[in-house]
Amino acid sequence: MSGQRAQYRMYLDESGNHQMDAKGIANNRYLGVVGTIVDMTHHYPAVLCPAMESLKRAFFGNDPDDRVILHREDIVGRRNVFSRLSNPDEALRFNKALCQFVAASDVGVIAVVIDKQGHYARYGLGAMHPYHYCAKVLMERYFFWLRHRRAAGDAMAESRGARENEALQAAWRGFYSNGTGHISGERLARLISTDEIKIRTKDANIHGLQLADIIATAATDNVLMCHFEKNQFRHPLDRFIHDGVASKYHCNPASGMKKGYGQVFLSGMPELVGANKKDSC
Q: Do the strands 7-15 and 30-39 form a parallel or antiparallel pair, or are they unpaired?
């Protein structure tokens, strides 16, 4: 047993949208795709899933016919069962408990944010689909994350519709087979166990996708703040979430730098990388 590699899964969720038309860029200039990485051998089934269910029961009861699915948009919109968070005291109590749950979860986080306006300005009609570009960068960082831990893993993304799912699956398989431009397909296959990216809906009560959803907006906003594209989190909930996730970003093992490792900003313009580059996050 001691010779077996740990098995991880990276759960992908996005903040923003992938639309590249004028309206999509004007209304949602930035797209964040965030990977939340979990040890599937022990932590996920034995710790994370039971802890999430315990959190749900503590605030929303335990009706087996009405499962609570943690979804950030429903939480901040106070929709459905989350309407009880309209009470400010209850909302504060929930935000703190959710932050504690995130902080206690043994996960890794990689946040990739793309400036769609800059991306299109640089590449024009030849621009790669922004979600797929972010997924490619996530695959590269995930590879190095796994290599540092001498582990293996796969990935799962939230379903976004039949056409989008099919396109993502094709793009992921292409990166896996042909390489990303920085890492060959042969090297990727040594650590990423399959060319398939699993695609599921959060409604199936998949705990990893729910956690990824909760983290995605906070992590995206933090990357934008680190690059002076934003000055605050979108909602008080996101500030609490980021307090819990701040120490979980993938970083350079030698320097501890998160920028370029667990926090990546794709501005559309080439960046200068040097020894004096500072990590402002």
A: antiparallel
Q: Which residue has the tokens 């899964």?
A: 9
Write out residues in the chain with pLDDT < 50, as ranges: 1-2, 272-278
CA atoms of 117 and 30, how far apart (whole Å): 8
Question: What is the predicted pLDDT for the residue at 203?
Answer: 84
Residues 6+ apart with CB under 8 A from 107: 36, 37, 38, 48, 211, 248
3-state secondary structure of 248: helix
Label each residue of 54-111 as H, E or C: HHHHHHHCCCCCCCCCCCHHHHHHCCHHHHHHHCHHHHHHHHHHHHHHHHHCCEEEEE
d(CA 44, CA 9): 10
Residues 176-211 pLDDT 10s: 999 999 999 999 999 999 999 999 988 889 999 999
pLDDT in tens, 206-235: 999 999 999 999 999 999 999 888 889 999
Nearest Cα to 34, choosing from 281, 273, 262, 280? 262
Q: Give the strand order in the sheet containing 107-115.
A: 198-200, 152-158, 7-15, 30-39, 107-115, 263-266
pLDDT at 24: 61
Nearest CA to 43 out of 31, 52, 56, 55 is that of: 52
Would you put residue 205 in left (φ > 0), alpha (ψ -120 to 50) or beta?
left
* Pure H helices in the chain: 22-27, 43, 49-60, 72-77, 88-104, 116-123, 130-149, 162-178, 185-191, 207-226, 236-245
